[in-house]
Amino acid sequence: MRAVAGQRRAAAKSRRRGGEVRSRTIHLGQERCARGGAGEKTSRMKIQRLAYVLQIFPKLSETFIAGELAELRRRGVEVRILSLLPPRAEVQHDIVHRAGLAELTTYDVDAFPSVVRAFRPQLLHAHFATDATAKARELAARCELPFTFTAHGYDIHRKPPPDFRERALAARAVVTVSEANKAYLARTFGVPEARVRVIPCGVDTERFCPAIRSRRRPSAPTEVGPDRGPRSPTPAGPEAWVVCVARPFAAR
To answer: What CATH number is given for 2-198 in this structure?
Structure first.
């Protein structure tokens, strides 16, 4: 992560006006198919121009969105990002810069329609069923485009929009992250299951993967208790160890 306040100001004028930004070639890991291993070819994606509508981008806690956008760019899909609000943090994950996502983001809400018309996406997609989806639905109607949205957790269980069913029926499709969510949408909001696609949030398995196992059996670690004193070593067990680190907090 790095401080990016200066970079945001430098690119703000171009982004607000929806200026054209050239894509950079990036590589973030081997391409995978849904049921195959690394390196297997996937079918050609039909969508080649895609606009994302987001509440805040980039956001430190939403690496899954940045990773999704970066992977789309790696696969050759042209993307534009329409963010309702600017980022609140002065630091951003490095993937935002490696994938050139900051330069593709527009924060001027009034300019969204002109940016969409100039970019001519085949589809609008929003993350979370709340404000971003409402804006995507509005833009889709105004620009005569289809839209989809991904429903995650709080926007389903904690603060679902009162017109969730209407938004789902207006969308070309609804994406959610688990089969449990899909069943909940059908049971609670009456969303037909045929309209819902389950796509779990993924990780870059080239970057996050188990280390090659050592043939030498690891020694037992020493446990450290709240008194900061060492305890007896853990008895010999399986080769894999789970290391837990935490800070003590006063009981409430």
So the answer is: 3.40.50.2000
Torsion angle, CA of 71/72/75/76, rounded to 10 degrees? -140
How do residues 174-189 score in pLDDT, each as one tens digit?
A: 999 999 999 999 999 9
188: DSSP letter: I
Residue 3 and residue 91 in contact, taking contact as beta carbons nearer than 8 Å: yes
Per-residue pLDDT tens digits for 159-174: 999 999 999 999 999 9
- Token pair of 26, please? 């990036």
Q: Is the pTM of this model over 0.85?
A: no
Terminal Cα-to-Cα distance of the chain (whole angstroms): 33
Q: Which of 155, 158, 115, 157 is nearest to 133 (CA)?
A: 155
| CA pair distance 92, 103, nearest whole angstrom | 13
Pairing mode, strands 78-85 and 91-92: unpaired
Classify each residue of 22-44 as buried b or exposed e, where b means 16 or more C-beta atoms within 10 Å of its C-beta: eeeeeebbeebeeeeeeeeeeee
